[in-house]
């Protein structure tokens, strides 16, 4: 536990000392919020309204994508925080950790928790935008969504950690991550419904951990029960796998299994790096 805490503390300290990183990480989520929220809200609400009179009265597109924007922040921060693994390799810090008595599992867990904590903090900071963009969520919903945010951040941090453990250059890491991150965002339901995708694309949607994290966050933050069934169907708020609607418990279980598997793979990678 001391080893995990030391690694976690180091990453948290680096985060708060890097103000440029703290501020710059909000640029992409806010840009997407402005573009999709401001540019597409009228179009999407208009399409929903075409389903019947009053259909769009109980639907706010910005409230629909805000949980997705938070998930996008978690994804980008979690994955790119793992870049520190490659930097630590280049500066020799990782070699010192690998030859220490700390187990490889604890190293992976410490790095994962550090990146996940940083991502969760930045996701929480986005809540400050809620009153500024005219949204309103129940306070209890914001509290309930915090564990889900941290769990999703752990899953995405383990994903970034595995990639970083396999690479030796920051340029290679950034290239691969850029290729993977954008499809994970767009094929998760964060910004638009993904319930009518082609079959091959639907497979990617269903194995994407962000899909389940976004769906859980929307179910907690957005009052889905108050929306009409047609609105829920149009916006893909009833995620189904093999024709069966998945529950929040099943979605959380998937995220946990995804995290455990990738942490174990990252541990194996760390062992090979020290071999």
UniProtKB/TrEMBL annotation:
Q: Name one GO molecular function term.
A: ABC-type transporter activity
Alphabetical list of InterPro entries matching this protein: ABC2_TM, ABC2_TM_bact-type, ABC_2_transport, Nod_factor_ABC_transporter
What keywords would UniProt list here? Cell membrane, Membrane, Transmembrane, Transmembrane helix, Transport
Pfam families cross-referenced by the UniProt entry = ABC2_membrane (PF01061)
* PROSITE patterns given in the database record: ABC_TM2
Can you list the GO cellular component terms from the UniProt entry? ATP-binding cassette (ABC) transporter complex
Q: Where are the transmembrane segments?
A: 20-41, 61-86, 107-133, 139-163, 175-194, 252-270
**Superkingdom of the source?**
Bacteria
Q: Where would you find this protein in the cell?
A: Cell membrane; Membrane
Membrane topology listed for this record: Multi-pass membrane protein
Record-annotated ABC transmembrane type-2 domain positions:
20-273
Family, per the entry? Belongs to the ABC-2 integral membrane protein family.
Q: What protein am I looking at? A: Transport permease protein
């Amino acid at each position: 536990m001391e080893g995990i805490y030391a690694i976690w503390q180091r990453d948290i300290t680096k985060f708060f000392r890097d103000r440029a990183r703290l501020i710059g990480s909000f640029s992409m989520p806010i840009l997407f919020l402005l573009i999709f929220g401001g540019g597409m809200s009228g179009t999407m609400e208009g399409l929903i309204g075409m389903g019947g009179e009053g259909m769009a009265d109980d639907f706010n597109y910005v409230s629909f994508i805000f949980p997705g924007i938070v998930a996008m922040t978690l994804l980008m921060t979690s994955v790119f925080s793992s870049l520190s693994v490659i930097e630590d390799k280049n500066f020799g810090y990782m070699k010192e950790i690998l030859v220490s008595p700390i187990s490889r599992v604890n190293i992976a867990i410490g790095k994962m928790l550090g990146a996940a904590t940083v991502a969760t903090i930045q996701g929480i900071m986005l809540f400050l935008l809620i009153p500024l963009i005219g949204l309103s969520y129940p306070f209890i919903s914001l509290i309930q969504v915090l564990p889900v945010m941290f769990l999703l951040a752990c899953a995405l941090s383990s994903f970034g950690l595995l990639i970083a453990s396999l690479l030796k250059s920051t340029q290679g890491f950034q290239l691969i991550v850029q290729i993977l991150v954008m499809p994970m965002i767009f094929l998760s339901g964060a910004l638009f419904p993904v319930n009518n995708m082609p079959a091959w694309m639907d497979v990617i949607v269903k194995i994407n951990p962000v899909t389940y994290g976004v769906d859980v966050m929307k179910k907690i933050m957005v009052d889905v029960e108050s929306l009409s069934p047609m609105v829920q169907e149009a916006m893909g708020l009833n995620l189904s796998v093999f024709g069966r609607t998945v529950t929040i418990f099943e979605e959380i279980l998937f995220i946990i299994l995804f995290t455990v598997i990738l942490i174990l793979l990252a541990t194996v990678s760390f062992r090979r790096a020290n071999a």
